[in-house]
Amino acid sequence: MPSEDTILRVRVTARDPDTLRNLLREAHPDVGGRVQQAADGTCTIDAYVTPEAAEALPREGVTVTTVEDATAVGRARQAEVAEGNRFAPEDAVPQGLGLKVQDP
Questions:
Q1: DSSP state of 76
Q2: 38-95: per-residue pLDDT in tens?
Q3: Contact indicator for 10, 1 with CB cutoff of 8 Å
Q4: Which of 24, 79, 89, 102 falls between 20 and 30 A from 54, CA-CA?
Q5: d(Cα 7, Cα 4) in Å, to the nearest integer?
């Protein structure tokens, strides 16, 4: 799968709130959830980024850990969804403005 189609969920950990704030202002990653601050002052947040962007995030005072391939997880979840309408009766006739196509 091409990397431009892949989105990773990464965990970004910064040594302090100011470092995390600066990273978020510079990189503009798509973040999910709230910032978690540990007792030692480090701040952690999850972000959704491309593999290239994940490689560019680490810097002094910031570590990035890949949690999962969010694209693969999403596609696996979509495969669980059925194609039909489970609420429609078995003998339902489509309604609406459409063209009736006849087989040749």
A1: H
A2: 999 999 999 999 999 999 999 999 999 999 999 999 999 988 888 877 788 888 877 7
A3: no
A4: 79
A5: 8
